[in-house]
Structures are given as structure tokens and as C-alpha cells.
Amino acid sequence: MRTRLRAAGLLDIAEKLDTRQRLSAEDGLRLFEHPDLRLVGWLANRERERRHGDRTFYNYNLRLEVTNVCQASCLFCSFARLQEGQPGAYTMSLEQAWDKVRSRDGQALTEVHIVNGLHPDLPFSYYKDLLAGFKRIRPDITLKAFTAVEIAFFADLYGMTDEQVLRELMAVGLESIPGGGAEIFAERVRRKIAHDKADADRYLAIHAIAHRLGMKTNVTMLFGHIERLDERVDHMVRVREAQDATGGFQAFIPLAFHPDNNQMRKLPAPTAADTLRTIAVSRLVIDNVDHIKAFWIATGVSVAQAALWFGADDLDGTVQEERIYHMAGSDTPDTLTTSQLRFLVERAGRTPLERDTMYNLVEA
């Protein structure tokens, strides 16, 4: 293999990895541009197996989007509606949202994952009551709710600081925040595709506050639209720098752009090869975040399976009611059972392990 790496011009990167030297942004760009995807994948798989062996994680979760009313105008979004009353707009009552958990009383759920639009007319009490109600119904379930973009929106709308918002939500049951809303950190791109919501600095600052308050969180990257490869690497490096400072990120999640039903519909979706390479480079560049997730809703099931040999060690979970990607044209199933997830992992040649939100193993 050393001969092949030398011939491919990647031996220096392999040696850096062997001696635990951090890859540079230039190294990351070389990996993106290298013609041999299989070799890049081999390097990423080696790093994955050094950390996790053949173990692959999943969780028993429920994904809820309680409102899609959103005052932001992200070009890539097929989910949001600008105001109540528009075709397709909805906002669940608290009872409707709580019923989503009540109706799953017999399921061994460990997590409710909540992401919403930026609704300008709901009171803050709606969100606090929402979480408190879930905790009354299922005290054992971890609530992973509200992206950093939502936290920033709440703070601005209700005249609070970001920390005050987090503290008040934690007091009623919030235990983690998801990674959505990161998009691409590069200001050039963000101004074009998501100009009217929290910028990269504030996104990262909110996660830093959450980490300081004791929460573990995730971080994402939306790729395959108008960003350049060097901007993908810059995003990864900024995640790595933020993790150096706080240590609170559990997983990095590359999210493939889906073009259907949004203002970027003329763009092609990223290919399977691009998705696998992005996951691989993520594993190699972001050396201080334990887990790389292949979110099967975004990648497609078969690509997610392949990704388990390109650096990914987590498939997310059962999901159950995801709308954001399906409204953007995802043709994946609405849900997978834990048995199906285990089957997919085993068919990919890996060992499935159920985890909770904090990556504690759940006994079968």
C-alpha cells in the first residue's frame, strides 16, 4: 500500500495520519481533488477503524418539525412557508405535537429530535411548554431540539441573550441541540443562499455556549450546491477549531443538497461519489470529533451503507416523521425500524450498535 500511496502522491498525508499530525486545509483540498476516490476512501476507513473498529451506531429516535412557518428565505429550502395560511403551511398545536409521542407509548424511543421554521408569531412559552410536555409524557426521552439558528432567532425575537434562551429551555428539559443550520460557513455562499438568518460566527458561538453549559451537540455541513471545494474544507477546519476550543461536538454530519421544489432546483444533486468523498475527507480533516454520520435520509440508504467504508460510523436513527428532506425530493423511506437499520449495517459488513443521544450503548 505504501507503494500505491507514493505513486498516487498521498504518502505524505498517510504518514501525517500515522504520526497523528493534523492535516492542513491544503491537504484537505488535495484529497477532494485527487482522482483516486477509492484510495481516499481507504485512508478514511483506516481512520474510522482506528477509532471504532467495525462498530456502527444508530438510535431509536423520532424526528419532529412542529411548524414550517419561517420568515427566513433560504434558497435551498423546500420545507418552509413564509406565513400561516399559505398552501402547505402548518403549525402543530401542543396537543398535536405531544400526541406524536403519546402514540408511540410502546416504542423504545430514546430521543425526540425537533427542528422548526423560524415562526415570527409564536410566543416563547409555546416552545417551553412543548418541551415540558414531552418530559411529562416520557421523562426518560432525551430532547434534542432547536438548531443554533433557532436559538438565535428566539433571542432576537424575544429580547433575550442566546445564553438566556438556552438556560430557560434547559430548565424545561432541553438536553442537546442538533447541528442543522450550519449550511456552509463561507460568507460568500451564505450571503447568497441564507442571508437572513444567523451567520457562521453566531452559529458556532451558540454551540460554544451550549457546550459550556454542559450540553453535547452536533454540527452539519450542507454540500453540493454553489460552494467550492476549498469552502467545504474551510467549513471542516472551522469545525475542528471550534472543537479544539470547547470539545462539545459529538458528530459531524455532511448533508447532501436536494434540489427539488426550491429556488435552486436547476442545480444537480451531488453524486454518490461526491457524497462518499465528502464523508471521507470529513473523517480525515476533522480529527477531534469522534463520529461522522451518514444521514441515510440525505444520502440514500445504499450510499449510507457504502459510507460505512468511507469514514462514517453512524447512520442516525429510525427518524420516523422527517419532512425537510422529503419535501426537497428525497425518495428514501419515511422511517426505518431498528431491525431494518441493524440489517442494513450487517449487510454492509459492519456491527450495529444502538446508542442513545450521548453515544451510550443501549442494551438489547
Strand elements, count: 10
Strand order of the largest sheet: 2-3-4-5
Find the CATH topology.
Answer: TIM Barrel
CATH architecture title: Alpha-Beta Barrel
- The number of distinct structural domains comes to 1
Structural class: alpha/beta
- Into which percentage range does the β-strand content fall? 5-15%
Give the overall shape. Answer: globular
Overall radius of gyration: 20 Å
Helix-residue proportion: 40-55%
N-to-C series of helices and strands: HHHHEEHEHEHHEHHEHEHEHHEHE
Mean pLDDT: 92
GO molecular function, one term: 7,8-didemethyl-8-hydroxy-5-deazariboflavin synthase activity
EC number: 2.5.1.120
Function: Radical SAM enzyme that catalyzes the addition of the adenosyl radical to the double bond of 3-[(1-carboxyvinyl)oxy]benzoate, leading to aminodeoxyfutalosine (AFL), a key intermediate in the formation of menaquinone (MK, vitamin K2) from chorismate.
GO biological process, one term: menaquinone biosynthetic process
Description:
There is one protein chain. The protein is α/β, with parallel strands linked by helices and 364 residues long. The protein contains 15 helices and 10 strands. The model is unreliable at 322-332 (pLDDT under 50).
Question: Could you write a compact summary of the structure shown?
Answer:
By secondary structure, the protein is α/β, with parallel strands linked by helices.
